[in-house]
Amino acid sequence: MKDELLQPVLFNVITIVALLFSLFQIVTGASGRLIRTADAIHALEALTAEGVLEDDSIASGLTRNRDQRTRLDNYLIVTMIIAILANVVANYIGRGRHHTNTARIRELEAELRGLRGD
After folding, report:
1. Which of 5, 23, 82, 107 has the highest count of CB atoms within 10 angstroms of its CB?
2. pLDDT tens string 97-110
3. CA 51, 54, 60, 61: dihedral to nearest 10 degrees?
4. What's the DSSP call for residue 81?
């Protein structure tokens, strides 16, 4: 019985850990993204004020920023897929246990009725 109980709990723990990891990535990635965007805007405003319209360092910085956002988005998607699959497995295992327990309860009720002479 302990092994049957451990399996859904294990998959639920995997789900919770994956969701917490995603939440952490969103919080840390979003704050950094806002800071980098604000820095890029200030740099562009300074260049516009100086009369320089294009700077290679800003373009490469924005490209790095986009690449980092893409990686973060991919990590989040993979983590959420893992969480969803772990939750589906836990629910499937739990549903099987529910049917097994229901069948056993019916058997015990039938035995009890037989002992009472109903």
Report:
1. 82
2. 778 888 899 999 99
3. 30
4. H
Tally of structural domains, the chain: 1
Which structural domain, as residue segments, surrounds residue 106? 1-113
Q: Is 58 exposed, middle or buried (0-12, 13-18, 19+ CB in 10 A)?
A: middle
Q: Is the model's pLDDT at 64 over the cut of 80?
A: no
Record the tokens describing residue 14, joined without a space. 């995997």
Q: Is the pLDDT of residue 15 over 60?
A: yes
Is the whole-model pTM more than 0.85? no
Residue 118 lies in a domain: no
Token couple for 72: 């973060």
CA distance 38 to 56: 18
The one-character DSSP state at 14 is H
Q: Is 72:93 a contact under the CB 8 Å cutoff?
A: no
Specify whether the CB–CB gap between 18 and 61 falls below 8 A: no
Round to whole Å and give the CA distance between 109 and 102: 11
